[in-house]
Amino acid sequence: MKLRYLRFVRKSYRYLRHPRLRRIKWLEPLTHAIFDKQFWKPCRDTVASGLSVGLFCAMLPVPMQMILAAIGCIRTKGNIPVALATCWITNPITQLPIMVTQHQFGAWLHKTIGIPRPPIISNLEKKVTAEDLYLFGVQILEAGEFTVNVGDFVLGFFSAAVLLSLIAFPIVWGVCLFLPNLGKHPDRMNKQPNQEQS
């Protein structure tokens, strides 16, 4: 597991340091900040923040999710490789089923719990004819005509992004109970001996 992580980190680091990317002027502040080694070392706190940012960005139906995740990690001191890898949850194969699930989740939140849709787009609807759609062997959409509400979709993807980003912290902290090598942040560990000497 550790060797795979290190290989992924080296490939990502080399790609980001490619001269073609470094020549782009508007990316220079971002790439300079990304190369700080504190964002690449795995520990409990940085991995939890990176997973949280990655899950949040993965649920957003926007292009360049990985760039958003990298910027989010710089702001939250998260682990960049974990965030970049997590963004690949939504890929060309899983994107459509996830978007359908987000729409259904938003409709469920609105109808069952009573959470209001965003007011400006709550009335935007379109009828769509679709075939059976399966996600991991589970049928999430039956063939036929159904109505897509933009307000339900926005409510669904935003709620899913927030919930998954919050769930990331207990997941990482639970895994760290079984993997004690993922301890505290390296900077904090280095400060402890100095404090004991003084």
Please, what is the oligomeric state? single chain
Low-pLDDT runs:
188-198
Residue fraction in strands: 5-15%
Gyration radius, to the nearest Å? 20 Å
Rounded to the nearest angstrom, the distance between the terminal CA atoms is: 38 Å
Q: Numbering strands along the chain, what is their spatial order in the largest sheet?
A: 1-4
> What's the helix count?
9
Kindly give the count of domains. Answer: 2
Taken from the alpha-carbon principal axes, the silhouette is globular
What proportion of the residues is helical, as a percent range?
Answer: 55-70%
Describe it.
- The chain folds into 2 domains: 2-88, no CATH class; 95-157, no CATH class.
- Helix 4 packs antiparallel against helix 5 (65-76).
- The protein has helices spanning 2-16, 19-22, 28-34, 44-58, 65-76, 80-86, 95-113, 150-178, 186-197, and strands at 125-130, 133-135, 138-141, 144-149.
- With 198 residues, the protein is mainly alpha-helical.
- It has 9 helices and 4 strands, in the order αααααααββββαα.
- The strands form 2 sheets. It has a two-stranded antiparallel sheet. Strands 2-3 form a two-stranded antiparallel ribbon.
- It is globular, with a radius of gyration of 20 Å.
